[in-house]
Amino acid sequence: MEDIRREALRWALANATEHGGKADLKAVVGKLVAELPGWRSKIRELSEIAREAVAEVNTWSREEQLLQLKKIGPVKRQKHEGRRGLSDLPDIHKYREVVTRFAPNPNGPLHLGHVRTALLSHEYARRYKGKFILRFEDTNPENTMLEMYELIKRDLRWIGLSWDEEYAQSDRVELYYKYAERLISEGKAYVCICKIERFRKLRDRGEACPCRDLPPDEHLGRWERMLAGDLSKGEAVVRIKTSMDHPNPAVRDWPALRPVTRPHPRVGERYSVWPLYNFSAAIDDHEMGVTHVIRGKEHEVNEQRQRILYEHLGWSYPTAVQHGRLTMPGMPLSKTQTMRAIQSGELSGYDDVRLGTVAALRRRGFVPEAIRQLMLDIGLTLVDSSLSWETLYAYNRKIVDRMANRYFFVPEPVEMLVHHAPKLREVRLRLHPNRPESGERILPLEWRGDALVFRLSGRDAASLKKGQVFRLKDLMNVKLVEKGKVLEADFQGMEVGEGPKLHWVSGCAVWLEVVMPDNRVERGLAEPAVAGLQTGVVVQFERYGFARIDTVKPKLTAVYAHR
Ligand code: GLU
Asked: 0.85 cut: is pTM over it?
């Protein structure tokens, strides 16, 4: 405890001396939490200690603060490279090997929130040379979707994750039965056949239902009947005994297994009783030797339930590490919301560009490394993080700018004839401005009589004024002489000068459709080299934005990423 006080004082002093003599409590708590991840669950205590330190430091004079800081020693700043934002895991020395897991429900596509959990779990396993497990939590036959197993794995691989072991809980049902039976026979679980409303009413008053205290033999009999399919959905549920006056009624005698008649998409009709999340996840974490459970703080109550099961079974609970929620403005990140919109046809699929699913981001040309870096920078904060698209764009831009080849594309093209131009047949331009080794693309120039034919983007064309001199990017300067349905211009010279540089297309341009982030489609002409690109390539259409080639045949389409 003295150590924590010392750290709090150190950060309060550092903060005060950097900010005109007044330390900011929030900032100090933030630093402490980052430094002491083991204290995340005791944030209130930590805040209290910080509050005392800040109050004390703020009564001191600046000289006093500097003096004390010198005495106590400077703060250790986190290195802002590589591991940015990612603090060490607590309890490392308690375990021989770090084992983490990612446990998705195969009932919908992964979105950025899942990626964060998966990435953190993976990253820590790798950092400590431990083991990373992928576990499909598919014990609800009613919403499990067969296609999701592969889709999720594809998304995880794409992000760059690899796992050392893979499980589907639907293969492990016998194991859950074994524990259920053991708990029932030991009187630590029971089969409740009360109507749910009645059970809840009693439970909320802290009272046992009539089933609870019947002898284990009676419950074993009911259990047999459940397994035989004699009790169906809603008629029976196995409950884990807790204290009936647990402060949170939702924890009291929580449900662990229930009958389900619907066949499971993976294992069919083999089982008519299925475990619920808290039961199978808790058992698996133990059975799989998971040392650190990293998950969203929305599972806090679940953790309380699971801890009780661990006590019943005489196990010690793994180190639980929670993170806050990740939200994006205007984005339905929840699986349920997403699935509903897809089913109703409101969204075109898991990769609809309006979604924050991994599939949608991939389709838009986000590169995995950008997502990885962003998530690791957000790190393991307990507070909720709101992520803006701009931030995501900035991370992606930093990477794709280096690798994406450049092309010209003009949306809503308008024709322009240029007179008196030198007789050029083509122009060769670099694929990447800073990477001559990437080679060149050829833009053929189209002649009609003795005029050169170009197309400009509708927006550029509209902005031009008669008499204005501008440059056709990387080619020549022209002066607008006529602004009718077709623009007419005069050649002015080749050398780079002042004035706007507009991109253009000329001979053999190809039609291209670009799907914008709001699902609107922009149609335009792209330079011919674009027709030779392959699906999946990320390019930059100059002055327009980054995009990923989505289809080549029967139609050339791209999906817009960002500016
Ligand atoms: N299947 C659970 C989920 O996706 C896992 C939660 C946990 O990590 O325990 O929410």
From this structure: no
Is the residue at 284 inside a domain?
A: yes
Residue 473 CB–ligand 1 contact under 6 Å: no
Q: Concatenated DSSP letters for 460-525? A: HHHH--TT-EEEETTTEEEEEEEESSSEEEEEEESS--SS-EE--B-TT-EEEEEE-TTS-EEEEE
Q: CB of 439 within 8 A of CB of 431?
A: yes
**Residue 2 has what pLDDT?**
78
For residue 112, is pLDDT > 50?
A: yes
Predicted confidence (pLDDT) at residue 315 exceeds the cutoff of 90: yes
Residue 83 located in a structural domain: no
pLDDT band at 80 (very low <50, low <70, confident <90, very high): very low
State whether 431 and 545 are in the same domain: yes
Query: Regarding predicted confidence, which is higher, 356 or 235?
Result: 235
pLDDT at 77: 65
Is the CB of 104 within 6 Å of ligand 1? yes
Confirm or reject: Cβ of 105 under 6 Å from ligand 1.
yes
Q: Does ligand 1 come within 6 angstroms of the Cβ of 137?
A: yes
pLDDT tens digit sequence for 130-143: 999 999 999 999 99
The CATH number of the domain holding residue 412 is 2.40.240.100
Dist. CA 267–CA 139, nearest whole Å: 11
Q: Do 186 and 306 belong together in one domain?
A: yes
Least confident of 33-37, 98-102, 347-351, 356-360: 33-37
pLDDT in tens, 221-251: 999 999 999 998 889 999 999 999 999 999 9
Alpha carbon of 167 to ligand 1 centroid (Å):
14
CA of 168 to the centre of ligand 1 (A): 13
d(CA 328, CA 389): 7
Residue 217, both tokens: 């033999």
> Residue 385 domain-assigned?
no
> Cβ(321) to ligand 1 under 6 A?
no
The pLDDT value recorded for residue 335 is 72
Is 270 found in the same domain as 123?
yes
- Structural domain of residue 142, as residue ranges? 92-323
Question: By the 8 A CB rule, do 544 and 408 touch?
Answer: no
Based on the domain organization, do 159 and 227 belong to the same domain? Answer: yes
Tokens of 507: 């001979």
Whether residues 207 and 276 share a domain: the answer is yes
Q: Please, are residues 363 and 558 in contact by the beta-carbon 8 Å criterion?
A: no
Does 65 lie in the same domain as 176?
no
Q: How many other C-beta atoms can be found within 10 angstroms of the C-beta atom of residue 163?
A: 20
